[in-house]
Each structure stands twice: as C-alpha cells, then as structure tokens.
Task: structure prediction
Amino acid sequence: MHTFFEAAKIAISSILAHKLRSFLTLLGVIIGVFVVISVATVIEGANVYIKEKIATLGSGVFRVQKASLTGFGDFQKFLDALRKNPDLTIDDLYALRAGVTLADQLGAQDGTAQDIRYGNISLESVGVQGVTPDMITLSNLEVAQGRYFIEFDNDNRRDVCFIGSDVAKGLFPSSDPIGQEIRVGRDKFSVIGVATELGTVLGFSQDNFVLLPMNTFLKEYGSRRSLTFVVRAKKGADVERVHDQVRVVLRTRHKLNYNQADDFSIASDEETEQLFGSITKVVAGVAFPVVGTSLLIGGIVIMNIMLATVTERTREIGIRKSLGATRRDILVQFLVESSMLSGFGGLIGMLMAITLMSGVSKIAPVPVAVPLWAPIIAISVSTLVGLFFGIYPANRAAGLDPIVALRAD
Result:
C-alpha cells in the first residue's frame, strides 16, 4: 500500500510537471469517454422519454388498429396490412363492447387535419380528432376549463368541441374560450372545454388539437374510415385473455377461418417500448464500437508517451534502483502513472459530456438521462486502457540495468 501511494505521488508530480504534454496525451481518452457518455445519455434519455411521453396508456391498456408497426424492420408488413386489412368501424366498436366482458373501458378515436378559425384569427393544419366520451379515462387528458364530452353529446351528434391549450391560446389570447364558436374546416362548433397543457414530444406540441364527439366527427368527415380502439382490462383480469376476447369478436365479424391470420393489430405500451428499444439497441450496437476506437487510439498514444517518458527518466530509474527500489516498485510506479493519466482523461471526458448534454437538453428537444452505469464503466474502461497500454513501457522501465541507467545522460 505504501508503494502504491508513493507511486501515485510521483505520478501526479510527473503529470503536473508536463501539463500540456499530459493534456495532449489524454485527448484521445477524453474524446472517447465524452462520446461514450454522450451516446449513452441520449439513448437512456430516449428510453425514459418513451416511457413517460410516448408509451402513455398504462398497465392493462392496449390499442386495436387496422395495422401497427410492432417490430423494427416490419415496415413493409405494416404497409401491406394497411392496404389489405378491412377498416375497423363504429359497428365493430359496439360489437366489442357487447362481447368483451373482461374490458373495463372501450373507446375509439380517429383523426384528420383541418384549418380552424375564430373571427380574423386562423390556425393551419390543426389535429382534429373524433373521440368517444370514455377516451378521457383512456388517455392522459385532463380538463382545465369547462367540461369533456358526455354520451348525450355523442348520441345526438352535437356540434361541440374540446380544444388543446395551444388552440385556446392561439384563438383566444385575451378572452374565455368556453361557449365561443370556432370554425373547423367549413363547419362551426361550440367550445365546451379546454385541456390541461401536455407539453411537447421531441419538439412537437401535444396541445394543438380539437376534439369532436365521435358520431359528430363521422357525420362531418364520413364513416368510411378505420378507427383505433383503446381497451382497458378490468382490474385483476389477465390482459392476454382480454386480447383473446377481442380477437374472437373481430375474427367472427370479419369471417376469418381458424387457419387465417388476424386482419387487425393489437398493440400495447410494452410493444411500443420494445419497438423503440430495438431501435436504440441498433444505434448503441453501431455507435459504441465506433466510439470505442477513440479509446483504443488514446491507449496507443499513452503507450508511446510512456515509452518516451521511460527514456527521459532512465537516470531517475537508475538512482531509485541503486537506493533499493525493486523491479516491482518501478513496475508499479509506471503502471500507476499510465492508469492515472487515462483515468483523469476519463473523468474530464465524463464531466464535459454531462455538462454539454445538460445544456443541449435545455435548448433543444433532446431527451437526456445519464445512466448510472455509463460514468462507472467509462472511468473504469479508460483506467484499464491506461493500465493495459502501460504494461509494456512499465516492463521496459523495470527491466533497466541500474548501472546502465546511471550512465545515461
């Protein structure tokens, strides 16, 4: 232990005595660790972002759609399903409500984009969705002003709407929107409620929408369209059994034989997370080996500098050996020095990455979350790189003959 601390003290003195050379030596390691931490931070941030912002249905809730992209690389299958599968209709919804006994809630939604107007103020390409009244309990929407739809609004195809906070701010910057009439496309609707602000996902607003009762939406935009159903299982019910009930109802309505595949798609938050997770794994699989190359280059630079250091300090090594330093003492001294060099580089790279990514997240829609393993592994690997590439120079220093070393200029 005494030998290690003495070696560390000598190593720090040597590093500080040649600050510029030490920094240039560490540059490869600094860049390598910086990139590794940055990539890991973005990937981890994306995974957290998916759970918090994109996969928002919650446990026991799933979607039934005409087609959905449920696997990385299945885009062609998705396009084929969109073309071949039958539309999911409002009658399918009624059949599901009657036949899926294990469902607690079963709602539907569909959407388009329209220009909207109030007086002289207009907003372009606003998301307009038809929703069933129970979608308020099947989504992350909350009422900030007024109220949400009730069955009476839907059954009577009332010309009412529920708007997002961006629409409310845009059309009614200084007045109360409740009770006002807005024009959605060519038709007028009375505002009955405003949603609580949801924020953005990857820089895109979630508050730029107008909701209409589903039957009103179908009256205005036609019923020849495919709906998305959102199903929540009853508390304690096996979600797979709920899936099976949905399949039985829809397969019966679509007259499918037992050997025919489903002509619809069931997707849960877990599958959404798996899809995005597979994408981030591919990114990580490509990125980490590439950025790891810079650590390798940094290690080679450290080895070259340590070889030069051994040559420079030959006389010092001879004096230490003549005063009783053993081969092990010299070996430890140079291994500690190379490890500390790369370890300091890893620490600098880590601090730079965390600082920069934290700043980027405040000015750009980049999800950031530092995984605990990333700094630990980055510092450990950078230190091991220094240790590994310091073995040859350390052995060379430890093997010097003290008499020859003392004769060196």
About this structure: The chain has a mean pLDDT of 77. The chain has two domains: 2-53+284-407, 86-263.
